[in-house]
Amino acid sequence: MNRLTVYEAAHNADYPLFIPFIMAGDPTRSATVDLALQLQEAGAHILELGIPYSDPLADGPVLQRSAKRALQQGMSLKSAMDLIPEMRKRGLTIPVVVFTYYNPVFQMGMESFLETANEKGADGVLVPDLPFEESQDFTALAKDYQLANISLVAPTSTTRVHKIASHAEGFLYCVSSLGVTGTREVFPQEAYDFIHTVKEHSAVPVAVGFGISKPEHVQSLSGICSGVIVGSAIMKLVEKHANELAAGEEKKKEALQEIKTFVSTLISS
Fold first, then answer.
1. What is the Cα–Cα distance from 82 to 269, expressed in whole angstroms?
2. Which of 6, 54, 87, 175 falls between 20 and 30 A from 196, CA-CA?
3. What is the residue range of 198's domain?
4. Quick one: angle between helices 158-165 and 189-201, nearest 10?
């Protein structure tokens, strides 16, 4: 039973999960480790560790720029996963989900990737461009390495929602709208209707992502979903403070504190 399974078993529907996404290597390796620990301290329940990729189809401008900066730092799938034991050594105890597009996995080899993820201390993997219909072998192999293959479900037919939700592990990533990641002003009623549909068919916690950036968003989703996933809003702050995060400890500390304050405000909403 890995950390994600423990969260799934012990989850209280009245206590929403907060799941931040950060890009490995943006702006530096050490800043990524510091940020992970700061997010845990702020109250994060699960960490999504993004692997930078040159053609991130599901990502909006903020995460595209983040991936580009990380790649310029020489970050790769393997070196990104090397950050997990560094985080664990410094006190990270929450589950870590490795978020990567399939091409880096293909290049590394499916089994080699999953074996490495397990060895490095990850608890789950999420591959957004791996279609559900083609994921059975990947999911089975992930189980062999005690990893949950996190499923994504986007607005689609009820039949397909049921099919995906019935096989979900750890938590189910509910995409609030079609399109790419990025902050939004409001969520349309259709998004709430879709979340309700997903919840009806899911036996695991349903976490909503794509567009969450304000306390009002979290408030509007409270009681509707089991958790919220925030990526672009956090990485936008990382981009704003990239120089400070890559600088000396004092400036880095101030930047991390601003990010922590932002996250704490979201969680306490």
1. 34
2. 6
3. 3-267
4. 50
pLDDT in tens, 187-201: 778 889 999 999 999
Instruction: Kindly report the pTM of this predicted structure.
Output: 0.94
How many domains, the chain? 1
Rounded to 5 degrees, what are φ and ψ at 236? Answer: -65, -40
Mean pLDDT of 174-178: 78
- State the catalytic residue, choosing from 8, 34, 48, 169: 48
Q: What phi, psi does 177 have (nearest 5°)?
A: -160, 160
Is 134 part of the annotated catalytic residue set?
no
| Distance separating alpha carbons of residues 188 and 73, to the nearest angstrom | 38
Burial class (CB within 10 angstroms; exposed 0-12, middle 13-18, buried 19+) of 48:
buried
User: Is residue 184 over pLDDT 70?
Assistant: no
What is the tens place of the pLDDT at every residue in 210-262? 888 888 888 888 888 999 999 999 999 999 999 999 988 899 999 999 999 99
* Residue among 8, 26, 34, 59 flagged as catalytic: 59
Q: Is 12 exposed, middle or buried, given 0-12, 13-18 or 19+ CB atoms closer than 10 A?
A: exposed
φ and ψ at 23, to 5 degrees?
Answer: -95, 125
d(CA 254, CA 225): 33
Q: What is the pLDDT of residue 1?
A: 47
Say if residues 53 and 100 touch (Cβ distance below 8 Å): yes
CATH of the domain at 118: 3.20.20.70
